[in-house]
Amino acid sequence: MSPAPHIPVLLDEVMAALAIAPGEDHVDATFGAGGYTRAMLAAGARVWAFDRDPDAIAAGRALEGEGALTLIAAPFSTLDQELGAREAAPVDGVTMDIGVSSMQLDRAERGFSFQADGPLDMRMAQAGETAADFVNTADEAEIARVLADYGEEPRARRVARAIVEARPLTRTGELAAVVRRALGWRPHEKKDPATRTFQAIRIHLNRELDELAEGLAAAERVLRPGGRLAVVTFHSLEDRLVKRFLRDRGGAAPGGSRHLPELAAAHAPSFEKIGRPVRASEAEVVANPRARSATLRTARRTAAPAWGNQMAMAISGAGEG
Q1: CATH number of 11-103+208-320
Q2: Number of Cβ atoms within 10 Å of the Cβ of 43
Q3: What is residue 232's three-state secondary structure?
Q4: Mean of per-residue pLDDT scores for the chain
Q5: What ranges do the domains of the chain cover?
Q6: Is residue 139 scored above 60 in pLDDT?
Q7: How far, in Å, CA of 175 to CA of 162, rounded?
């Protein structure tokens, strides 16, 4: 495998939280370019690495040949099922680096970014509905809902109306231009407003918040007592979801979760948090600007039974509002 085309975010902090001992079993739930996996292998772990992007799996096959790595072409929401089928659970650690990878962002043909023009795609698994399908067929109300819920776009209806009026749209550059015109953006302004629209459509197409909620619940099921969970997020929707999961699973929500109070109160804490949330240092941000918005949250699995998928559903819904 060629050198990773991106720098793993908060790598030292993640590895410190995992505290890997040689011979442990760890899950890299978001393999990407393999940055975390390489560090886990170097620490002496056996690694089970997941990715739903076939390009990431194909690029990682050479690394897999070294023997301590097993690549699994599947979304991390199914990690408990996949590990169970391989008799690989329980494990000592699960690490998640949420969101789009640098490999995906930097390839114009994948359509995740408007920095270089490409086809409106945005599919992590390279299957199913594309971004072009969505913007060209969804009605205005549905587009506005997606932009508001997943992009936190304050003028979602205005942008949705402009998208519908400009259809058909097939290129990332076209969509970005439509959003900029709708919001009156000028090139000298610091943040490009198209960022929120692209984020929203990507999250919607790939079910990213649902995947995260289901993946956290799956991690809870496969971690052995004392096992560590490390999750790196890059925007507020993801971070709120992880924070709520760890708060509720740690028994810190007064009276349980406001969504399922009786269920929360009936369960013993399945996680205990490890330290405070960690952000990238100034030095790391200078070396890797994509680390600027990253937040790492870590927790240790207790011996209590897993709470189950019901809470994952509640957490996912809460993150989308």
Answers
A1: 3.40.50.150
A2: 16
A3: strand
A4: 89
A5: 11-103+208-320, 126-205
A6: yes
A7: 10
> Which phi-psi region, left, alpha or beta, contains residue 189 (left: φ > 0; alpha: ψ -120 to 50)?
beta
Cβ neighbours, 10 Å, residue 121: 21
Neighbours of 280 (CB within 10 A): 22
pLDDT tens-digit series, residues 151-174: 999 999 999 999 999 999 999 999
Query: Can you tell me the mean pLDDT for 221-235?
Result: 97
CATH entry 1.10.150.170 includes domain 126-205:
yes
Mind listing the pLDDT tens digit for each residue in 256-312? 455 555 555 578 999 999 999 999 999 999 998 888 999 999 999 999 999 976 555
- Dihedral sign, Cα of residue 118, residue 234, residue 311, residue 269: positive
Residues 205 and 197: beta-carbon distance below 8 Å? no
| Structure tokens belonging to residue 220 | 């809870």
- Average pLDDT over every residue of 30-50: 95
User: pTM here?
Assistant: 0.89
Residue 29, helix vs strand vs coil: coil
Question: Side chain identity at 29, as an amino acid letter?
Answer: A
Q: Which residue has the tokens 């550059």?
A: 173
Q: Return d(Cα 144, Cα 10) in angstroms, integer.
A: 34
Mapped to the 3 state alphabet, what secondary structure does the chain carry? Answer: CCCCCCCCCCHHHHHHHHCCCCCCEEEECCCCCCHHHHHHHHCCCEEEEEECCHHHHHHHHHHHCCCCEEEEECCHHHHHHHHHHCCCCCEEEEEEECCCCHHHHCCHHHCCCCCCCCECCCCCCCCCCCHHHHHHHCCHHHHHHHHHHHHCCCCHHHHHHHHHHHCCCCEHHHHHHHHHHHHCCCCCCCCCCHHHHHHHHHHHHCCHHHHHHHHHHHHHHHEEEEEEEEEEECCHHHHHHHHHHHHHHCCCCCCCCCCCHHHHHCCCCCEEECCCCEECCHHHHHHCHHHCCCEEEEEEECCCCCCCHHHHHHHHHHHHC
Which residues, 6 or more positions from 281, have their beta carbon under 8 angstroms from its beta carbon?
none
